[in-house]
Each structure stands twice: as structure tokens, then as C-alpha cells.
Structure to design on (220 residues):
């Protein structure tokens, strides 16, 4: 039953991202259909010779090409100057500037590569000694004694807390970010044997340190 439950959870973890991605793409299709297809239908040639669903696909393609064009322009000197001026104007508008900043920060985190947004999977004692939590290192400055760690919630890893963890109290796990996210979403139900052993070694090192004997060097 335990193995069957793990297979069931693994199946859910596999299907859920596909379903959510499909739903987002479908909503994007509907938005384009409602916004751009009426404009394309004004072109007599397209209205008379192209089926409605192909008009929507043309609108989707045009939207993607527009986003690519904006990305290319943003990387040029003119684009940097223009969008920099736009952000400075937004920063002068009360209320709107706060919404813009938060939205920009969230977008950068969600759209960034996990290898850049989350660097390592770490274990540390939180919220008190003897209780261990799993988090992701988001910023590690060698010149500072504390490390920025994002502590996600289960089963929704997009919410959580930003913690400043002393470097000496943090243990880096030999685990990929993807495996760490999968472990958190499942609430600890989906864990590979080698991952469990690595966490057990961290727990054992923490117990030894609490007893006053020699501990680890902060890494698992």
C-alpha cells in the first residue's frame, strides 16, 4: 500500500503540472480569440478565406512574435533607455509604483530558471532547535555570515517565508532543486532512498552537535 500510494502521488505530480499548463495555454488562447480575432476579421481576405479557428491561431502566433520582438528590443540600447524611462515614470505614480514593483519581482522569480532562482536545497533547524525544515538557497554572499533561504509551504511551494540563516547552521543537501520541490509538494511522501539517507546524516550531525561533540562543517 505504501508503494502504491507513492506511485499514485508520483502520477499526480506528473499530471498536475501538465493540466495546469494546458489550462493556462487554453486561457491564453481564449484571450487572444476574444481580443485579436475581431480585428483580423476586419480584413476581408482573411474573413472570407480563413476559418475562424485559424484566425485565432494567427492571433496567437502574432502575439508570440510580438513578445519575441519586445524581448529583442529590450536587449538593445534604445530598448534599455526606453523601458528605463518608462519605469522611472511609473516610480513617480503613487500606489501604481508599488503594484508595478511587486508584479515585476514576482514575474522575475517565476519566469527565472530554477538554477538561478533557487541555487541549492538546504536543511536547517526551524522554527526551533530539534525541528528541521527544508528550504532553497536564493542568495549566498561569501562575505556575509547569513544566507538568504526561501522556506516554502506544503503543498504549495509558491508561498512561504524568506529567512536569514546563519551559514554555520545550514546544511546543503546533495539534491537537485527539482527533487526538493517534488519532496515539498508531496509533503515528504515522495522521497528517494539516497535522499532520505542524506537527510538522516544531517539529523545525526545535528544531534551530535547538540550533545557537545564534534559536528559537521555545515554541509551534508
Amino acid at each position: 500500500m505504501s508503494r502504491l500510494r507513492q506511485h499514485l502521488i508520483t502520477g499526480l505530480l506528473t499530471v498536475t503540472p501538465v493540466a495546469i499548463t494546458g489550462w493556462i495555454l487554453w486561457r491564453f488562447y481564449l484571450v487572444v480569440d476574444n481580443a485579436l480575432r475581431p480585428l483580423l476579421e476586419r480584413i476581408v481576405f482573411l474573413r472570407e478565406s480563413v476559418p475562424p479557428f485559424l484566425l485565432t491561431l494567427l492571433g496567437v502566433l502574432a502575439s508570440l512574435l510580438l513578445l519575441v520582438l519586445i524581448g529583442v528590443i529590450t536587449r538593445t540600447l534604445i530598448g534599455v533607455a526606453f523601458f528605463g524611462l518608462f519605469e522611472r515614470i511609473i516610480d513617480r505614480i503613487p500606489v501604481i509604483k508599488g503594484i508595478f514593483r511587486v508584479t515585476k519581482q514576482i514575474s522575475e522569480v517565476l519566469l527565472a530558471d530554477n538554477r538561478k532562482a533557487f541555487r541549492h536545497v538546504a536543511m536547517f533547524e526551524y522554527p526551533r532547535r530539534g525541528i528541521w525544515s527544508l528550504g532553497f538557497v536564493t542568495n549566498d554572499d561569501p562575505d556575509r555570515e547569513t544566507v538568504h533561504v526561501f522556506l516554502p509551504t506544503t503543498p504549495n511551494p509558491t508561498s512561504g517565508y524568506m529567512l536569514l540563516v546563519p551559514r554555520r547552521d545550514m546544511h546543503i543537501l546533495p539534491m537537485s532543486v527539482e527533487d526538493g520541490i517534488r519532496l515539498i509538494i508531496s509533503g515528504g511522501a515522495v522521497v528517494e532512498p539516497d535522499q532520505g539517507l542524506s537527510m538522516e546524516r544531517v539529523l545525526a550531525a545535528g544531534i551530535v552537535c547538540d550533545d557537545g561533540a564534534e559536528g559537521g562543517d555545515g554541509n551534508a
